[in-house]
Amino acid sequence: MRQIILLFCLLSFPLMAQQAPDFRLSDPALGQQLSDLKGKVVYLDFWASWCKPCRHSFSWMNHLQSEYGDQGLVILAVNLDAEPELAQGFLQRHPASFHIQFDPQGKIAEQYQLLGMPSSYLIDANGTLRHVHQGFFTDKQPVYHQQIKTLLGERYTGQLLTNMGAPK
Predict the structure, then answer these.
(1) Region label for 136, one of left (φ > 0), alpha (ψ between -120 and 50) or beta (otherwise)
(2) For the chain, how big is the Rg over CA atoms in Å?
(3) Cα separations in angstroms, 137 against 32, 34, 119, 142, 166
(4) Secondary structure (3-state) at 74
């Protein structure tokens, strides 16, 4: 198991500490591009209707949206089903209180070098990829929460320094 985790970390490393690959957003309430969300912390999740762990991650992401949405967290879940009716059926069974983006061609997933589902990427307020999660494990939720709180805290500190006129 450790070798698998290490392999995921090594494969994920090229994406870490770099700007999040940009893509066009389908929800005009968010802006036109992912980069329009700079200043927010983004939890970018990839899912499909056939993915069993995605069922559990949806209720958790609804909770995150409720708990941290007002603090600047944006949850964006990218669906990769080739058949839209499969995604719609999933959403009827597992309603989402966060933004859904459809990527049936897998172009966004390709930009993020997606290895499996669910996968999620935490993007800081500067648009930098900071954490990658392969799979969804309920025993790791405290770690996920701490990572989100840290990035939201950095966002708050950055805004405070900007308001005080401090150089970045």
Answers:
(1) beta
(2) 16
(3) 32, 26, 11, 10, 40
(4) strand
At 45, list the tokens: 């999740």
Short-list 119, 113, 84, 122, CA closest to 101: 84
Please state the pTM of the whole predicted model: 0.85
Structure-block tokens of residue 158: 């950055």
120-155 pLDDT, tens per residue? Answer: 999 999 999 999 999 999 899 999 999 999 999 998
Q: Which residue has the tokens 């802006």?
A: 31
Cα distance between residue 151 and residue 157, in whole Å: 10
**Tens digit of pLDDT for each residue in 45-72?**
999 999 999 999 999 999 999 999 999 9
**From residue 49, how far is each of 27, 55, 79, 97 by CA, in Å?**
20, 8, 8, 17
